[in-house]
Write a structure and sequence with these properties.
Radius of gyration: 26 Å
Number of helices: 17
Function: Catalyzes the ATP-dependent amidation of deamido-NAD to form NAD. Uses L-glutamine as a nitrogen source.
Pfam families: CN_hydrolase (PF00795), NAD_synthase (PF02540)
Organism: Pedobacter psychrotolerans
Strand content: 15-25%
CATH class of the largest domain: Alpha Beta
Largest sheet: 6 strands, mixed
Helix content: 25-40%
EC number: 6.3.5.1
Family: In the C-terminal section; belongs to the NAD synthetase family. Belongs to the NAD synthetase family.
Length: 546
Amino acid sequence: MKIALAQLNYHIGNFEANTQKIIDHIKLAEDKGADLVVFAELAICGYPPRDFLEFEEFISFCEAAALEIATHCTKIACIVGLPVKNQVLQGKDLYNAAYFIENGEIKAIAKKALLPTYDIFDEYRYFEPSRTFSCIEFKGKKIALTICEDLWNINDNPLYVSNPMDELIKEEPDVMINIAASPFSYTHDDERIKVLSDNAKKYHLPVFYVNQVGAQTEIIFDGGSLVFDADGAMKAEMKYFEEDLQVFDLEEIENVRNKYPQPERLTDIEQIHDALVLGIQDYFKKSGFTKAVLGLSGGIDSAVVCALACRALGAENVMAVLMPSKFSSDHSVQDAIDLVNNFGCMHEIIPIAAVASAFDSVLAQAFNGLPFNLTEENIQARTRGTIVMAMSNKFGYILLNTSNKSECAVGYGTLYGDMCGAIGVIGDVYKTQVFELAKYINNERELIPVNTIVKPPSAELRPDQKDSDSLPEYDVLDKILYHHIEEKQGSKSIIAKGFDEALVQRILKMVNIAEFKRYQTPPILRVSPKAFGMGRRMPIVGKYMA
């Protein structure tokens, strides 16, 4: 039996495009001699469809698409994911399911049992967990078909009624196939490989795993579909951050025990770079936009976002707006100009000193006798936000937010100013990682000016301002934030690692106080195990201070 894994980029709710893409790859797999082609979890509608699942018409479109796909499976069988109705009058209305289609007919349905409810997942909101399991017979083989989380063997959640493979193995299957929508984080690929390898060894069966690729707003899927033999040895690893289709001979996987040459793994920064480029591309393509605008300050954050946008969309589709204030240094303006010249993107220089001064004049009577402080600094930031939003409205550009994760965490940003935007490009990238990204972007030649990388970070909202006036050095700050956000550690645990007690308490207080700001920020491209947004849900007015 020859099995094709089709690793594709789907568009949530775009049934016409998804269906045609699936049909095209059925034909491609057939032409390559495959007997069975396997598509990802909820491939027909795209993942995660969220509350689209509450619309009856949405489910009917899924079913109609599946019937259309079935008409193209006369010479080849396929496995494809979709939501299906629960015909029993108990529990949720839907199952997260997969159809096995052969000879133009739906011959079997597999339903997901282990419904994830952590981090970005909320599947129990929509789906009923399966409680019955049976293998699929095809070409003299028994297939144990599972869906994503069903191979992660999480048994300590009371919602997880049974481990599917512990039931399916009783039927003595010949192969495991797992269809998935496994989101990217820069730590996840190694974890995923280990889990799948462990399953192959535990059940002593080959594993064929297909993941989707592409970005759905803030969630990015990296592909990296995998094949393992019954000893848990990796036999194939498909492309990352790209669509791919490959055909594998089950007999060879079962019987040829030669070691698969392991490809060199991408570094964390390389993965983050490729994920962000894909995230920008798909946000624009799937939203129907082509051109981006951003404020370019001469600092490292906006420089990195500009570079990523140029790589994702083409420099000709990126507008960088330079908005020097009376506090902007000459070298910051020059650094920004050098960057746009290096990439060849569009740019405008719009000084804000006169606009900020006009605000100062209008507010002079109300602020009479009060000193210059954060208020006037924020007026400058909001002036910039107004200008880039004006460029967005006038020309139809989509505004890219350039705030990094360190700033988002501690509230070092201005609402309706530098926190404006339609998508947060580096909001899940710590400042120290931003520096690494800049160096990686420059690995072949200097694109981001070296001065942008080496100069002390500054918002340039008052004379000689530096980020370090308000924050600890980023190499210290980011370590504290990582322990708190990604590792979910409280102050006592972090202090026990050797960090200053007063500093830790101050930083964690800043994180908690800034929660109201993060509720008003754009969606952030997720690249870490714990990103701000739907995967981290904190109360704004909670009293608990970790």
